[in-house]
Amino acid sequence: MGKILVTGAAGFIGSHTVDFLLAEGHKVIGVDNFRTGRKGNLSRAVDSRDFSLHELDVSAPGALGGLVGVERPDAIIHLAALVSVQESMTNPALNFSLNVQATHLVAEAARTHGVGRVVFASSAAIYGDAPEQPAREAGEKSPVSPYGAAKLASEALLLGHGATFGFTVRCQRYFNVYGPRQDPSSPYSGVISIFAKRYREGRGVTIYGDGRQTRDFIAVGDVARANAIAATRANLFSGAANICTGRETSLLDLAEIFGRYLPASPLPEHAPARSGDILRSLGDPGKAAAEMGFTANVRVADGLAALIAESAEVVVT
Ligand SMILES: NC(=O)c1ccc[n+]([C@@H]2O[C@H](COP(=O)([O-])OP(=O)(O)OC[C@H]3O[C@@H](n4cnc5c(N)ncnc54)[C@H](O)[C@@H]3O)[C@@H](O)[C@H]2O)c1
Questions:
Q1: For FRET with 192, which of 69, 108, 131, 268 sits at 20 to 30 Å CA-CA?
Q2: Is 45 helix (H, G, I), strand (E, B) or coil?
Q3: Which has the closest alpha carbon to 6: 200, 224, 177, 237?
């Protein structure tokens, strides 16, 4: 079994990745500065003697490198980031620090201490408004936000370091991830977490634009499994692959599914489209299947049912 260091461990995807790795029998070193993550997300993990948690800022020079030098993990899964596209537009300097500088420090920590593999949380945002549908890895990349640009730059930084200094890099281009522990408090959070919260509270949702905009929604359990495969499967080559389902769901579809499970809910309201919103997002999952043997298992209707059923306030009939 391996020893895996996870940055952003207390976050949404990070905490599920930690739980998955522990369940598979790995030792896990969690790193977080709790900027957006919560200790409560790791309530299961902290009971494991195979888990340790370290509070540090990955973007602070020397901080992660010091820990990696002591722990000597087999792999680093780098998920810590400024995750809000909107915040990257209002604060590009912070985006550079948390999403580019931090990645460079991860690459340097891997080089300096001989870490064999780095897995990076990239994003469908690197494709921009995705002229090609479904988006394929070799296709055009035209990020339309500092966030997307930083993810693309980070892929290049890591792949360049890996090729030069001899470690494997897997860039995981997540599409829209949803599931338990996703924070619905920001208006720019994942749309499913916002919808779930509002439906749970018996309130209707607001759909910006005509609601025909689509996303490739992938369940967080599938993403955690993809991270574990990328970090631990033997004989993987460096590269980038979409982590997606290959299926499109519109916001109107989502509202319809929630309405089916919670029929007493008010109908959605419509508001003008928000600037910068991507109209269509769909990924081709073939490369992740071919290179890592990863295929998403959970269909959106099932993932939503599980999310709704998790809530004590709601009885699914
Ligand atoms: N959620 C999605 O749909 C999605 C899609 C594409 C890519 N991603 C990427 O996946 C990763 C995880 O996202 P998430 O949705 O779990 O968000 P999240 O906010 O729940 O997790 C990010 C974690 O990183 C921590 N963090 C931030 N800056 C840090 C720093 N400098 N040092 C240490 N810890 C720091 C936060 O406290 C948080 O726990 C991010 O890199 C994000 O860009 C997410």
A1: 131
A2: helix
A3: 224
In terms of residue numbers, what domain contains 116? 3-177+218-246+286-292
CATH number of domain containing 87: 3.40.50.720
Whether 35 and 164 map to the same domain: the answer is yes
Distance CA 252, CA 207 (A): 8
Q: With a 6 A CB cut-off, is 232 part of the ligand 1 pocket?
A: no
Whether the CB of 253 sits within 6 Å of ligand 1: no
Q: What is the pLDDT of residues 44-62, one digit of tens each?
A: 999 999 999 999 999 999 9
Q: Residues 193, 184: contact at Cβ < 8 Å?
A: yes
For ligand 1, say whether the CB of 121 is within 6 Å of any of its atoms. Answer: yes
Using the mean position of ligand 1's atoms as its centre, give its distance from the Cα of residue 168 in Å. Answer: 22
- What's the rounded mean pLDDT across residues 247-269? 91
Whether residue 237 sits in one domain with residue 131 = yes
Q: Are residues 109 and 187 part of one domain?
A: no
Tell which one of 42, 83, 95, 119 to mutate to probe ligand 1, the residue whose CB is within 8 A of the most ligand atoms.
83
Mean pLDDT of the residues in the chain: 93
CB–CB of 151/96 below 8 Å?
A: no
Q: What is the pLDDT of residue 317?
A: 33
- Residue 164 structure tokens: 């030069």
Catalytic status, residue 147: yes
Question: pTM for this one?
Answer: 0.95
In this structure, the answer to whether residues 62 and 146 fall within a common structural domain is yes
Same domain, 238 and 277: no
